[in-house]
Amino acid sequence: MSIRRFRIAVIGAGAIGRNFVGSLTKDYVDEIAFLDRRETPDFPEGGPYGRLRRIDELVAWRPDVVVECAGHHAVSSVVPQVLREGFDVVLSSIGALADRQLRRAVSEATAVGGSRLIPIAGAVGGIDALSAAARSGLSEVRYTGRKPPKAWHGTAAAQEIDLDVLTSPTVIFTGTAEQAALKYPQNANVAATIALHGVGFEKTTVTLIADPTVRLNCHEIYAKGRSGELRVNTSNEPSPENPKTSWLAALSLQATVVDKLLGMHLET
């Protein structure tokens, strides 16, 4: 059995993109190129890597898969065009899909390009069970995200409360998954993932908590439907480079791409 070597285009050369590329084995990677428009991007060690500045350069390069790890703006400004050109995109910034117009644009782009948008499971478990339960009908889906106060620095919560003086768990947000993902774009990818696989952005209930009594990023899912009840609790180490996200989210991106590519390209 042999493995076909393939090309990967990565949107964004930030912390997540660098960690993802660093996880790939050269046994089955032919070339890697970054789509990054910054003047001096910080590419990871282990190159050389290709540099793509425009989408037309990405199209001409003909990657086997495109991996997004650059944030909400990149999803709205780049991903629909890439999908329209016929390239599958693995999506890590799932919260961007809380924007209804973007969801329509992505759906239309995949139809035109015959491509797929592949959202990662991210920092939470039980997504396969939630998706299966949704097929029989769900009457309720709730998500509670609990993180230490430092994970909420630089977000809307920091403008509303003094995170540095909290001594007990404090609710910083209650609302829908759509509202959570738009207000907390760096913290609510899990809420968006649950919404996509459950009852949608408008019907998924979200509670976000700044909790000085915890060190890990904690995610709780509750779902109820015709097939029964689902409860999933996950406690994750924060990313070493970004406490707003869980380390498991980066690992999920790695697993999604590697499993997908190996599954597609194994040859006997």
Can you count the beta strands? 13
Largest sheet strand order: 4-3-2-5-6-7
CATH fold description of the largest domain? Rossmann fold
- How many helices? The count is 10
Structural class: alpha/beta
Radius of gyration: 19 Å
What's the CATH H-level homologous superfamily of the largest domain? NAD(P)-binding Rossmann-like Domain
Helix content: 25-40%
Number of domains: 2
CATH architecture of the largest domain: 3-Layer(aba) Sandwich
Sketch the topology as an H/E string, one letter per element.
EEHEEHEHHEHEHEHEHHEEEHE
CATH class of the largest domain: Alpha Beta
Biggest sheet architecture = 6 strands, parallel
Summarize, please.
The protein has 268 residues and is α/β, with parallel strands linked by helices. The chain has two domains: 140 residues, 3-Layer(aba) Sandwich (Rossmann fold); 118 residues, Dihydrodipicolinate Reductase, domain 2 (2-Layer Sandwich), CATH 3.30.360. It has ten helices and 13 strands.
List key phrases describing it.
268 residues, alpha/beta, Rossmann fold, Dihydrodipicolinate Reductase, domain 2, 2 domains, six-stranded parallel beta sheet, five-stranded mixed beta sheet, 10 helices, globular
